[in-house]
Amino acid sequence: MQVTSGVGGTGVVAVLRNGSGPTLLLRGDMDALPVAEETGAPYASRVVVEQPDGSRTPVMHACGHDLHTTALVGTARLLADLRARWRGTLVAIAQPGEEIGQGARRMIADGLFDRFPRPDVALALHVWPELAPGRVGITPGWWAANVDSVDIAVYGRGGHGARPQDAVDPVVIAAQLVVALQTIVSRRIDPLEPAVVTVGSIHAGSKHNVIPDAAHLQLTVRSFDDAVRERLLASIREIAQGTCQTYGCTRPPEIAVKDEHTPAAYNDPELARGAGALLAEVLGAEAVAEVPRTMGGEDFGVYARTLGIPALLFRLGAIDPASLSGPPPSLHSGRFLPDADPALRTGLRALAHLALWQLGAPGE
Ligand SMILES: [Zn+2]
Predict the structure, then answer these.
(1) Could you tell me the distance, in angstroms and rounded to a whole number, from the CA of residue 77 to the centre of ligand 1?
(2) Handedness of CA 62, 68, 73, 78 (dihedral sign)
(3) How do residues 146-205 score in pLDDT, each as one tens digit?
(4) Rounded distance between C-alpha atoms, residue 61 and residue 47, angstroms
(5) Which is it for strands 56-58 and 265-267: parallel, antiparallel or unpaired?
(6) What spacing in Å lies between the alpha carbon of 65 and ligand 1's midpoint?
(7) Which residues surround ligand 1, an ion (CB under 5 A)?
(8) pLDDT of residue 249
(9) Is 305:263 a contact under the CB 8 Å cutoff?
(10) Which residues contact 202 (CB under 8 A, 6 or more apart)?
(11) Which residue has the higher pLDDT, 295 or 362?
């Protein structure tokens, strides 16, 4: 196995050539999150890192990416041991930067598909707290959303809080804008098309009795369909400009769509059906569930979009609901703790069987 590190930053690419046949991409993401671990596990993270702004923050694998990378390494080892049972090329990649939606893009920009064999199909898994260990979930078609981040700056004219008649209050304008933005999904988008506009951050001012000069909003915008995405972004611009004009802003708003867009991810329906049938044989029919799509984002979709190849990411059961008194801690929670041993066993079996299936498995 030929291993190259430092691809697209800290990415790792392992290539195992085993005669002529298809090329399979297996992807495990490996980044953590700036969340303090509260699981109480004996192996809980105690790592503290420096942020780009110089502040220090505890980090943990709150999205289970450590388990993904472990499953990736285990599957690559299994396939190396079982090379008499398949033909082709395995490209196993450990990807950084999934949480910031940049890792896949950076690895591709650093020559993932030029310096290494070009895949015909791509597979990955993601732990899923709503499925018990031993189970897997499959979603045919679109399964993760387009994610856009939008910054809006609203400009008024500051002044004394007791003399609003002399000022243009950006706080009130921003408040109107937050409400007006909610009419995009309710009034402008087909109700049968999923879409979300969330204002996750709003900042203005520093004191009770001072009207500030500006207000800043940060939005996350979600969709599946690219035409819906365009309509959402165009509507945000229109409504922000119109609101600012209506309330007499001192200059037009600044609206910046961040270029960290994560495209919606698609599970090839035929691949998903075949994988579901195979995993039902391997794990038992009751172990395979069809799970609904999510408005969450995943940059795994970038690989298939870039090459126009089929791809599948399946969900891996991680937490037994019987072991909890309430609902399971969600992904990105400081209390997210997958039941690692059974989840990993199932992940390895599923990923290895799917890989052997895609790589011909001669003689089986
Ligand atoms: Zn994740």
Answers:
(1) 23
(2) positive
(3) 999 999 999 999 999 999 999 999 999 999 999 999 999 999 999 999 999 999 999 999
(4) 11
(5) unpaired
(6) 6
(7) 63
(8) 97
(9) yes
(10) 174, 178, 215, 216, 217, 218
(11) 295
Q: How far, in whole angstroms, is CA 24 from its chain's centroid?
A: 21
Question: Rounded to the nearest whole angstrom, what is the distance from the C-alpha of residue 308 to the centroid of ligand 1?
Answer: 23
**CA 284 – CA 135 distance, rounded (Å):** 9
Average model confidence (pLDDT) across the chain: 96
Distance 89 CA to ligand 1 centre (A): 26
Eight-class DSSP state of 97:
-
| Cα 54 to averaged position of ligand 1 atoms, centre (Å) | 25
Angle ∠(321,313,89) on CA atoms, nearest 5: 135
Confidence of residue 364 (pLDDT cuts 50, 70, 90): very low
pLDDT at 138: 98
Statement: residue 319 has pLDDT above 60: yes
Ligand 1 mean position to 300 CA, how many Å?
A: 10
Cβ neighbors of 255 (< 8 A, separation 6 or more) are: 150, 151, 152, 236, 237, 240, 241
pLDDT attached to residue 363: 46
Tokens linked to 297: 């984002």
- CA–CA separation, 59 and 61 (whole Å): 7
Specify the 3-state DSSP secondary structure of 321: helix
